[in-house]
Design brief:
By secondary structure, the protein is mainly alpha-helical. The chain contains six helices and five strands; from the N terminus they run βααβααβααββ. The protein has one domain: 3-Layer(aba) Sandwich (Rossmann fold).
């Protein structure tokens, strides 16, 4: 399973539902884009170390942005630019899930409704 940035932020902050979703996943991965978004949100070197420990402790793999993922993201943007709020980062994360065939767990599945071949599950943090 690939975890979107919003789910990872909730989990890092101790959200029990997010942690449970991670615990129940057969495999755990994030896009390199998600990793960069997590880095962008840290406020200190200590928090960065804790975030890295968190990912390591839960056995997350970080999937690189390959040429195929980049090409797929461009195709997704071309197909959805006029009818969705899908941005560049989201397109790359979605393309990663499409290319790997993994399910994407996201707190905002409706942003991805226009994307064919995406298997996504909505995460509700409440």
């Amino acid at each position: 399973m690939i975890f979107d940035s919003d789910v990872m932020i909730c989990a890092f902050r101790g959200n029990k539902k997010a942690l449970k979703a991670i615990d129940h996943a057969d495999s755990r991965a994030i896009s390199a884009i998600t990793y960069m978004e997590l880095l962008q949100g840290v406020r200190s070197k200590y928090e960065m170390r804790e975030m890295k420990k968190f990912l390591s402790r839960l056995s997350f793999s970080t999937l690189p942005v390959t040429a195929n993922i980049s090409n797929r993201a461009v195709t997704i943007m071309e197909a959805t630019a006029l009818k969705s709020e899908l941005g560049v980062c989201d397109s790359l994360i979605v393309a990663t899930a499409c290319e790997t065939g993994d399910t994407l767990l996201s707190g905002n599945k409706k942003r991805f409704k226009e994307v064919a071949l995406l298997n996504a599950i909505e995460f509700k943090s409440e």
